[in-house]
Amino acid sequence: MNESTPSPSPAPVPKASSHTKPSPSPSAGTKRKRTTGAKYYAVKNGFKPGLYYSWNDCLAQITGFKGAIFQSFPSFEEANAFLNGVKLPSSGSSAIENTRFYGIQRGRVPGVYTDWSKAQEQIRGFTRPRYRKFSTREEAEDFVKSGGEKPPPAVGFGEAQTTVVTPGMMKENAKNADGVEFVAGDGPLPPGAEDGFDPNLLLNPATGKVMYKTTQQKTATKTQAAGIPGVLRIYTDGSSLRNGTKLASAGVGVYFGPGDSRNVSEPLKGSRQTNQRAELTAILRAIDIAPRHRDITIITDSRYAIDCVTVWFINWRRNDWMTKDKKPVENRDLIESILVKIEERHELKVKTQFEWIKGHNKDPGNEAADRLAVNGAQRGVQEKADSLETGLTVPDEVLQDEV
Question: Which residues form the RNase H type-1 domain (predicted)?
Answer without folding.
Answer: 228-378
